[in-house]
Amino acid sequence: MIRTAILGASGYVGGELLRLLVAHPELTPAKLFGDSKAGQPLGAVHPHLALGYPDAVVERFGDDSLDGVDLVFAALPHGHSQRLAATILDRGIPFVDLGADFRLDDAATYERWYGHAHEAPELLDRFVYGIPELNRDAIGKATAVSAAGCYATAAILALKPLVDAGLVKLESLIVNAASGVSGAGREAKEATGFCTVTESFSAYGLINHRHTAEMEMALKGTVLFTPHLVFAPIFFALFHLSDWTRIAVIVKYTVFVIIINTAAAVRSADPALFEMAHSFGANRRQIFTRVLLPASMVLLFAGIRLGMGRAVKGMINGEMFIAFVGLGGVVQKYGSQFDASKVLAVTVVILAVSLVMGALVQTAERRMTRWAD
Hints:
The protein has 14 helices and nine strands.
């Protein structure tokens, strides 16, 4: 077995690496390091890994920490691997960096995108960019590998065949991508807190997102990259990129609000009305249609109105999930072309749809609750 050490085992990336290694036939995690969680059992840091590593404890990294280690993985915050890489490689230990420190192939590009000089520029050419589909043979022979960024991996694997076939223009590659918030790391931040990101589809890192540099390096072109934070990326896995994605998002926004208000409406009906109707010989159907519905109608429509408003919000997010078709596709297409008039036209269409939906609900409510006026 190859004895591995994981620097940064207490973070999200370290935890995912440990999940992958728990059943690996040739790699065994021998030493786990994480300064912020040093001394804690791994099961307390990553509860889902407790059964796989019942005796593992997170340690603090020291000078002799790599004795007996055959391979090192680094899942460290940005900048830390630059300070450790030379020591690890000088000991003849293969090194895989899962962070961004050694992804780019020259120091000038690194400084441009990361805003500071690289601390170990002499090592950049020793690291192989870790996308097997591009560099399988080189990775197999390398002693230093840098894992690619998440957005970069998705974009490069999608675009590289088109680039190689000459089917796209290298000077105008456009990437719009969406992700959850775990990529921002384990540390709590206001910008990635639940209350900030829930029910949203927000762009960030416009023009200067660092994964752009990786895309341009691998594709040899100019990339306009716009990343987004998404409130519920699990819908991608459940429904893929289809009309069901739209439906799932809209249902998520509306169904619970309507159910909660419906339950409140039923509870608000006076039980004395049911008893009175029953005493006059009304059957269940009559009690439902003549007593329960009229008594709860106001709250029922309150829930429907709230649901319709949220449905519009869900419709917009659903369109953006599969932005290569439908209204979302139009917004993305003309937005990337900076054609404000067409983007505005789509916005007006969405507004018109929401107004029509609201008007229909109000009309139905007025007709069915005339007695409430």
